[in-house]
Amino acid sequence: MDQMNHSLAEAMERTRTSSRNVREPTVKPEAGNLVLLTAASEERDQNHNQDEVISPAEKWLRLLERVQDAARYIRDIEDRAQEQEFRVQELLEQVRVDMDSARARALTAERHAREVEMRAAKLIQAAEERAVAAEQMLQRISQTIEAEFAVPPSDRQPQHSRTYTTRVAS
Prior knowledge:
Elements: H1 2-21, E1 25-29, E2 35-39, H2 40-47, H3 56-148
Antiparallel strand pairs: 1-2
């Protein structure tokens, strides 16, 4: 039994020595999103005298506190991870909504462009038809004028022919 207590004491001593060397994180929020981590064991060691003999019960209590601190730290990290995951999901949903909206606007713009193109083609065709009709009308007017006011070909030439001469100064 005494040997078992002795080996338990050795194990506790090794745990205390190794735990001093291990930096257990404790969350200390600072400005912004920066989180500083400090060693919980260092803070506790400052509060207790190094030369003081620590009972096994006190060692177990300290170990329990460290485990609780680690569990709290892990829960904090998990909470932040869940919050970030939630924000990412919200952002993804917003991106989906924005993409759907952009697709709908693009389809509407394409449909509008096709309608405008069809209207323009109809207007061009109607303008060409009016131009052909106007040309035909002008030909008929020209033919009517020639038919109604027909002048014999000999009368079409000028009656007096004038000749102009230019004198060159020497």
